[in-house]
Amino acid sequence: MPKKTFEKLSERQQNKILKVCLGQFAKYGYDNTSIKTITSRLRVADGYLYYYFDGKEDIVKWVIDWGIGKWIEEYREHLEQTGPVDMYDNFKQAIIYMANFIQNNRDLYGFYFQLIHDPNFVHRDYLAHRIQDLDYNYEPAIDEKKANGVIRSDLPSDTIAMLFDVVATRLHQFIHIPKEDPVGVSQMNEEELGRFVDQIVSIFRYGIEPR
To answer: Is residue 175 a contact partner of residue 188, using CB atoms and an 8 Å limit?
Structure first.
């Protein structure tokens, strides 16, 4: 995390460092990004960042925490505006919100996507743990629907929650990498994406066999 000296920098200077670090890690990954490449992009002396951080590990952890904090803060504001929703509505809203977030924060999502898929990333476990903070906790809602007889009681709640999470994560990856998108979600506007997610919710509710 940043040293106390970092707090003395202006907000503009802090944001400049953040933007460059984020862009370098998102584009080149952890191993192929060095303090030297970051300082080169910042056009400062090689030892400049050591005045504010202990090293590259310190920098990347700071960027992780900043990004997670940004997402959580904005999503909480979104939920406050939309009000309480049920399990399926939350699934839909989370996908649509994250789609907009990815499109508006390409470097940030690219940063997480690059590092979470790097088996040699030194803070991979830490990143995975922090990303869990972003996941909506479906299990209490699933348990409630089970108790009310709305969904099957013979299926484990964590398995159902996993299915929600896997589908949402995959759709977000398609939006991030359009060339790997087989269903066209990366080209959908918010209304189209909403209808598409409604189809997925229908599959969760009723299955794929004819009714």
So the answer is: no
Q: Is the dihedral of CA 166, 170, 171, 176 positive or negative?
A: positive
- Locate 89 and state its tokens: 């509505």
The helix/strand/coil state of 2 is: coil
User: To 5 degrees, how large is the angle CA 127–CA 143–CA 162?
Assistant: 35
- Please report the DSSP string for 7-23 in residue order: GGS-HHHHHHHHHHHHH
- pTM value > 0.85: no
10-residue mean pLDDT profile of the chain (211 residues): values are 88 93 89 92 92 91 87 78 76 88 88 83 79 69 88 89 90 93 94 95 88 68
Q: Which two tokens stand for residue 37?
A: 């490449």
